[in-house]
Structures are given as structure tokens and as C-alpha cells.
Amino acid sequence: MSHYNALTVETFPIAPLLAAWRDRNPEHQQSRCTCTQGGCCASAESLARRVGVSHSTMHRRLRSGQITPDEADQWACIIGVPPHAVWRDDWGRSLYEPDLEVI
Ligand SMILES: [Zn+2]
Hints:
By secondary structure, this protein is mainly alpha-helical.
């Protein structure tokens, strides 16, 4: 983890982001789910729609369990959680410098 260069794409685990998504949205319903009427539910499919990626991309991410730094940054912002709140110290150690005032 401590060595990376321009050719290395660091990734972030998708699990804490999914957890944040589930915290903020109602459980997916078998029938008449809000996600079939343009709303958002806790499903990964609904998250995919919200962040603007295809279902196949989302399923690849779920299989690998990882997302790219760009996705991590964008998806967290779309969900409304600062990336450093999702990935904590891992975000601070990443290539992305969070906009935090160091106390
Ligand atoms: Zn749903």
C-alpha cells in the first residue's frame, strides 16, 4: 500500500460506500419499489443509476470489491458523504488530498 507511482491505480473498497448508501435509502421492495418510479432505494442497482454507471460496471465493481479513486470521490459526493468520512484514514493516505484543515 505504501508504494505507488503514476502507473499504479490505487483503489478503495466499495463496502463502506454501499453501507453509507443503504443507511440513506429505504430497503428495496419486491413490488412497487421507489426505484422503479424514479426514486432511490438501498439496492446496488439504484446506486448505479444514481452515480451514472451501467449495471455491468456496478457488478464488476461489486465482484472485485474495489472502486477507483475517481469513482470513490464522485460517488461519495453524489451520495452526500465526504470521501474522508467514508474511507477515513485510507482516504488521507491516498493520492487524493482531502480538503481538511489539519488541527
Ligand atoms: Zn428498489
